[in-house]
Specification:
The chain is an alpha/beta fold. It has 9 helices and 6 strands. Strand 1 and strand 2 form a beta hairpin. Helix 2 runs antiparallel to helix 4, helix 4 packs parallel to helix 9 and helix 6 crosses helix 7.
Length: 267
């Protein structure tokens, strides 16, 4: 167990039973859109998703020689058949993706999805635009903070966990500032329902971070990629539909106040 999960276990014991775990991940589409997703789960939902993904890994391993049950459920690798999913036939990859989406949909977890139209951001603010990563993260955390107030009792907090990336320090610093007071251009009100800090760790050691990655990737893809193959289009629509069945907030901010572009990019 990594230091991340040791820390989270201690934090969970400190705040339990009044805490909801929030697993976040990011996803870009070329240089046109930036997205963040947050999978919000209580203890039962967390156990359900962890056990479910492990069962899917066992199913794949039983049918695909050489597949490691510890393989990460990284959505882009599953979709394109890369890295640990390279030798998995396309039929099994589609089945695995569909099963993961069903597991998330039936777990009791809820999902929040936020995005920023980067071309519109640059057009309106130019060199004065906030860094897209931190801007989208701020909008996501504000949405999560508001949703915590509507789905949980007043004394319940959310604890945020994220995949490791280069801007961990900036994200932690931003959250600390956002919790103290509203930040013009970032958030409209203090984030008073989020506990402590953001914990960062490797996604390959967390099925929940993998589930957040999965949900974020497929909502990104369903919004931004025109599928050329009808079979791929049907599969993505089915998977994204399952994710959307538990999505309680989905919004892409277009700073020019025009309709966000829905189709852009490939891959």
């Amino acid at each position: 167990m990594t230091d991340l999960f040791l820390n989270v276990e201690l934090e969970f014991q400190l705040y339990a039973p009044h805490v909801r775990l929030i697993f976040i991940d990011e996803s870009a589409r070329d240089d046109a859109f930036y997205f963040f997703g947050a999978l919000m789960a209580d203890a039962d939902a967390t156990r359900s998703i962890e056990a479910g993904l492990n069962r899917v890994a066992e199913l794949v391993a039983a049918d695909v020689p050489g597949f490691d049950t510890a393989t990460e459920f990284h959505a882009v690798d599953m979709f394109h058949g890369e890295h640990g999913w390279k030798r998995v036939p396309v039929g099994w990859r589609v089945k695995a993706c569909t099963l993961v989406a069903k597991i998330i949909a039936r777990s009791g977890a809820v999902f929040v999805f936020r995005g920023v139209d980067l071309e519109a951001l640059r057009l309106r603010y130019g060199q004065h635009a906030h860094p897209p990563h931190l801007l989208t993260l701020a909008q996501l955390l504000e949405a999560v903070n508001g949703r915590l107030g509507s789905i949980d009792r007043p004394d319940q907090l959310g604890l945020v966990l994220a995949d490791e990336h280069h801007s961990a320090a900036g994200a932690r610093r931003s959250l600390r500032n956002f919790k103290v007071e509203s930040a013009p251009g970032w958030t409209k009100r203090p984030l008073d329902r989020i506990a402590d800090t953001i914990y960062f760790g490797p996604s390959h050691e967390s099925r929940m971070l993998q589930a957040a990655d999965f949900a974020t990737y497929f909502l990104n893809r369903s919004r931004t990629v025109p599928e050329r193959d009808p079979r791929s289009a049907a599969a993505v629509a089915r998977i994204a539909g399952l994710v959307r069945s538990v999505t309680i907030a989905e919004y892409v901010w277009c700073p020019t106040n025009t309709t966000p572009r829905s189709r852009r990019g490939v891959g």
